[in-house]
Amino acid sequence: MKYMIKATIGLFAAIMFAPQLVLAENASPEIERVRAELVKMVPPAADAEILTTPAKGVYRLELDGGFYYAYVDGDHILFGDLINTESKINLGEVAKSERTSQIISSTSLDKMIVYGPKDAKRHITVFTDIDCGYCRKLHQEVPELTAAGIQVRYLAFPRAGVGSESHKKYVSVWCNADQQTALTDAKAGKAIAPASCENPVEETYLLGRKVGVEGTPTIIFDDGTVTPGYIPSAQLIDRLGLGSPTASN
After folding, report:
1. Is 175 one of the catalytic residues?
2. What are the extents of the domains in the chain?
3. Which of the residues 132, 136, 175, 222 is marked catalytic?
4. How far apart, in whole angstroms, are the C-alpha atoms of residue 32 and residue 14?
5. 60, 129, 131, 153: which is the annotated catalytic residue?
6. pLDDT of the residue at 64
7. Which of 26, 167, 170, 247 has its CA 20 to 30 A from that of 207?
8. CATH number of 29-90
9. Closest Cα partner for 50 from 73, 85, 79?
10. Which of 135, 136, 153, 175 is flagged as catalytic?
């Protein structure tokens, strides 16, 4: 099986180190020397996890929530993506999906506003902002998704950040006795009575940042695949292998 490195231009290029450095999965003196050099350019490398990969001489590092691959030849380290030349699969994206799936699956439903049956066939998790136009468009299609057997799980992600008006609106929705109706009304542009209570809005916003969310809606499929942006309900239903809800009637 063959692999190729697709170099990342900009943040990382070729980084020269002392000769004969070899990365390993233990805290060897060589690893610590590599870390010391990396930290000069990328401070988060101080806590980076270093793992072996199927490709000889190539190692995976997790830095600041992202995955990077390093090819070591004794004098240089080249950072980039690792791609299987036969399957064309980007192993970095696979690793990211696996990590995202673990993080999202460990997030309690108690921190989400959920639409759809508890025994749904499939589910999607959506980072959403009340004032986001495409979030509102997607929400209008939630009935079609739930009719097809898809549970929609919302996590708050106020794009303007913690303390913003969007953040305050979501807190008011969360603190409403009927969260589902309140969220639907808010996404329809209706005023929601201000309210405050213990809520997970800041926590889920930071969670979104951790898994690389940059905009809304960001849809996370139940296999951990992350897709930014709006996707029509018909495409979501097909992608989840459930066919058209009208076709089953």
Report:
1. no
2. 29-90, 108-240
3. 132
4. 19
5. 129
6. 60
7. 26
8. 3.10.450
9. 79
10. 135
Please check whether residue 146 is in contact with residue 117, taking contact to mean a CB–CB distance below 8 angstroms: yes
Q: Are 132 and 156 in contact (CB under 8 A)?
A: no
Rg (CA), the chain: 22
Residues of the chain scoring pLDDT < 50: 3-26, 74, 245-249
Active site residue 159: yes
CB 114 within 8 A of CB 151: yes
Contacts of 134 (CB under 8 A, 6+ apart): 216, 217, 229, 230
* Per-residue pLDDT reduced to its tens digit, 41-73: 667 677 777 776 777 667 777 766 667 776 655
Task: Identify the active-site residue in 131, 159, 175, 222.
Answer: 159
C-alpha 111, offset from chain centre: 16
- Tell me which CATH code domain 108-240 carries: 3.40.30.10
